[in-house]
Specification:
Strand content: 15-25%
Bound molecules: ligand BJW, zinc ion
Low-confidence stretches: none
Radius of gyration: 18 Å
Number of strands: 9
Shape: elongated
Order of helices and strands: HEHHHHHEHEEEEHEHEEH
Strand order of the largest sheet: 3-2-1-7-8-9
Mean pLDDT: 97
Largest sheet: 6 strands, parallel
Length: 244
């Protein structure tokens, strides 16, 4: 499987990599599903919704504050490093991430599409029109934070279940599905529309691959399902690509 992917990568011009929480697992960022995925007794589906925030903003902010503090002590791992290098070396390599931790950014990734926003950004809950703003302070100075323009409640600048993704990000992600090789790394591939991008790429003729420590919803649909940690498999691929 790995040999097939490497052969395809050797002849590929356009390469798109879509990442999920598993890419940051080796950095110490908890994934959403599977072992360690719960915060207290809550699943992402219980907290990452506008309804949960409307019901109990303090609880949802507590979850985000805990995650911000965790992520603040994490650094990009070898998987982030390889992807950043690929985007720097080729103008035809794009990374689409579902992650909000910004570790791809910190690794220096170019042409990065962040489908679900950033945990380091805040937005006005009342949508008064003020643009999202960045605040990397840990902990945040007040709870709850408020909008600097209208004074109403602030919320994390991320995309929750039931909310639309930014059309510009979706367009960029969709454009990147026109590629020679599309690799999904460290994602359970169950959250849409991100999960649909793999099928989109495949239907446009891309060779599709997955890198994950365990089988996922996408494993049977891809051309090559590679089992292993992103932080070991991606560096191995990068090393073998250097040997022509
Ligand atoms: C390793 C590893 C290592 C571990 N190396 N691997 C079509 C069909 C059905 C439902 C829908 C549909 N279209 C829309 C929906 C509804 C919904 C949805 O998809 N629901 C599903 C759960 C069924 N989608 C939405 O609501 C989206 N909005 C939308 O579509 O708007 C229009 C619309 C609305 C309503 C109805 C219809 C249309 C928005 C989705 C937003 C998701 N937001 C979250 C939270 C972001 C903010 C935050 O972080 O707090 O995004 S939820 C959470 O899941 C987060 C993640 O980005 C996302 C995906 O998770 P990911 O990255 O895959 O992580 P895990 O934990 O699931 O998996 C980790 C993987 O890593 C595992 O496989 C491990 O094995 C692996 N791993 N270590 C490699 N070292
Ligand atoms: Zn406001």
């Amino acid at each position: 499987m790995l040999d097939r992917l490497i052969a395809r990568l050797r002849s590929a011009t356009r390469v798109t990599v879509m990442t999920g929480a598993g890419v940051s697992a080796a950095s110490g960022v908890p994934t959403f599903r599977g072992a360690g995925g719960l915060w207290r007794t809550f699943r992402a589906e219980d907290l990452a919704t506008p309804q949960a925030f409307a019901r109990d903003p303090s609880l949802v902010w507590e979850w985000y504050e805990w995650r911000r503090a965790t992520i603040a002590s994490c650094t990009p791992n070898a998987a982030h490093g390889v992807l950043a290098q690929w985007t720097r070396e080729s103008p035809h390599c794009t990374v689409i991430t579902q992650n909000v931790d910004d570790l791809h950014l910190r690794a220096g990734t170019e042409r990065l599409v962040r489908l679900h926003g950033s945990i380091w950004e805040l937005a006005c809950w009342q949508r008064c029109g003020t643009p999202r703003w960045r605040d990397e302070r840990v902990p945040l100075p007040s709870r709850p934070m408020t909008c600097p323009s209208c004074g109403s409640l602030a919320r994390p600048g991320v995309v929750w279940f039931g909310e639309s993704l930014s059309p510009a990000d979706l367009d960029a992600a969709s454009a990147a599905c026109s590629c020679d090789v599309f690799i999904a790394v460290g994602t359970s591939a169950i959250v849409y529309p991100a999960a649909g991008l793999l099928q989109e790429a495949r239907s446009r003729g891309a060779f599709t691959a997955e890198i994950n420590v365990e089988p996922t919803a996408a494993s049977s649909a891809v051309d090559a399902a590679i089992q292993g940690g992103a932080e070991t498999v991606l560096p191995e691929i990068a090393a073998r690509l250097q040997v022509r």
